[in-house]
Design a protein that fits this description.
By secondary structure, the protein is of the alpha+beta class. It has 2 helices and 4 strands, in the order H-E-E-H-E-E. A 4-stranded antiparallel beta sheet has the order 1-2-4-3, with helices on one face. The chain is rod-shaped and about 150 Å long.
Length: 169
């Protein structure tokens, strides 16, 4: 009779290897597997929340950069508008000055016009004061200084006027 060689492990009477009756270490192994799976799930959740936090931090950094750029663009727009306003004002101011008044200095800020001028005629000075006072673009005219030069017979005066808001825009 021929003997057969069986390469499969011998199964005990309790059943096949897959369905064997568990020994005393099986609950420990299953518990360890469950605990490891729970730990891995917790680590995966923590990793996801850390990634969200880092993404939120990056997003807030980007939002800050965008706000900073928007503020700079606003400043640039205001500067461009002010520059155009100042050019318009510089073109307008000489129309208020009579022929025989000599401009020494014009200073213009957003809210204040300062003029230093010379004239030999009191009538020209009065005409200039009247022109600035009647102009809708300026208000609160103030004479801040005046000097009469005896040598040249020129009257030097400093006046200030408040620029009406938004008038040159």
């Amino acid at each position: 009779m021929k003997e057969s060689i069986n390469l499969l492990p011998q199964t005990p009477k309790g059943g096949t290897p897959l369905f064997q009756v568990p020994d005393k270490t099986h609950p420990l192994i299953i518990g360890a597997i469950i605990i490891l799976e729970v730990v891995f799930l917790i680590l995966l959740i923590l990793r996801g929340s850390l990634e969200k936090r880092s993404l939120l931090a990056q997003t807030s950094d980007v939002e800050g950069a965008i706000r900073e750029l928007q503020n700079k663009l606003t400043i640039i727009k205001e500067f461009r508008q002010d520059r155009l306003s100042f050019l318009e004002a510089i073109k307008y101011v000489p129309t208020l000055i009579p022929q025989d008044v000599i401009l020494v200095n014009i200073s213009l800020r957003r809210d204040l016009l300062q003029i230093v001028a010379k004239t030999s005629s009191g009538i020209s000075f009065a005409k200039m004061v009247e022109n600035v006072t009647r102009s809708a673009k300026f208000s609160d005219l103030t004479l801040t200084g005046s000097i009469l030069d005896d040598i040249n017979k020129l009257y030097t005066f400093n006046i200030e006027a408040r620029v009406e808001e938004g008038i040159f825009k």
